[in-house]
Each structure stands twice: as structure tokens, then as C-alpha cells.
Amino acid sequence: MLRDENNCKISKKLEKLREVEVTIKQIKSEGKLVPGDIIKQYKQAVDEATKEFLNQNQYDIVFCTCNEASGKRAKIFNVRQCIIDESGMAYEPETIVPLRLCEHAVLIGDHQQLQPVIDYSPAKKCGLSKSLFERITVHYEEKYISKLKIQYRMVCYFMLLLFLFVFLQKCPAICCVFPGTIT
């Protein structure tokens, strides 16, 4: 019975959202600009439907961007562990945002491959061109850092096959070496 009541609450919120979406589509089809109050209604309907849905369901895993972790919806969750992928290229403040929500964190990335892109020179002078991942890697090299022994994205066999395929496509005379591989 409780589950049906929860689904009913979510359905009502979604229905309100659909009504506002229909209104917006109608206004746009007439070639008019959508008024600010309608946009505000839409945002409010999205927030209400999302909150109702997230409150009624328990999740073990939630995916979001670092910036989304600072939003209203992220505060609903009790986050125990946070995994930040490509943290080598995230700005330090951007990485800190999700870290404030969790008990434990795992940062994944390669600070030597991709660094944060900072175009504003005063920000560079303040050290924002270094990621939190790089600072931790440099400071705690042996104690907390685990490095891959094998680069799985660039396995040499795969690269060899890719090279041969491209090479054979461009040089049909060599196709006789591997009969039947290229059609």
C-alpha cells in the first residue's frame, strides 16, 4: 500500500511537469518566447518531481558531475564513498565540491596526461592550474597512490591490429598476406 501511495505522489508530480512542458511546446510552436514565469514553473516542477522520486527510492550508486554534487538534489543522499574519474583534469575547487559530501574518496586520473585548463592568469598564479589529484600524487607518492601496471586502453595487440587494418585498407596490394581479412 505504501509503495502505491509513493508512486501516486510521483505520478502527480510528473503530470504537473508534463502540463508545463505542453504549455512550453505550445508557446514555442506559435513562435513566441516562453515567459519567465512559465520557465520558473517548469524548473520548480522538475525539482519537485526529482525530489519526490529521489526521496521515495533508495539508491546504492548515483552518478553525477562534480558541479552537480553541489546542487540541491545531491544533498538528499547520504554519500559514503565518492569516486571522481578524470580527477587529474578537474580544478581543485571542482574536486572539493563532491568530497565535502562523502566519508571516503577515490580519485582516478593521470595528472601527466590531462591537466586543468586555466586561461585566466591570476588563477594560474594562485595555483589553480594544478589539480587536487596532482597535489596528492606529488605529496603522498608512495603511501596512498596505486598506479596501474598495464595500460588497458592501449594494449599493444589492439594497436597492432588497428594499424594493420588501417594500413591494409590503404594498401590493397598487401591484402594477400592476410587472405580473407579485408573485404
Features:
Rossmann fold; 2 strands; mainly alpha; two-stranded parallel ribbon; disordered C terminus; 183 residues
Structural summary, described in words:
The protein contains six helices and two strands. The N and C termini lie far apart (61 Å). A two-stranded parallel sheet has the order 1-2. The chain has 183 residues and is mainly α. It is 46% helix and 4% strand. The chain has helices spanning 2-29, 36-56, 92-99, 121-125, 132-139, 156-170, and strands at 81-84, 104-107. It folds into two domains: 2-56; 68-154, P-loop containing nucleotide triphosphate hydrolases (Rossmann fold), CATH 3.40.50. The model is unreliable at 171-183 (pLDDT under 50).
Characterize the largest beta sheet: strand count, sense, and whether it forms a barrel: 2 strands, parallel
Number of helices: 6
Q: CATH top level of the largest domain?
A: Alpha Beta
Task: Count all strands and give the number.
Answer: 2
User: How many distinct folded domains?
Assistant: 2
Q: How big is the Rg?
A: 25 Å
**Widest beta sheet: strand line-up:** 1-2
Mean pLDDT: 76
Strand-pairing-aware structural class: mainly alpha
Q: CATH homologous superfamily name of the largest domain?
A: P-loop containing nucleotide triphosphate hydrolases
CATH topology of the largest domain: Rossmann fold
What characteristic shape results from the CA principal axes? elongated
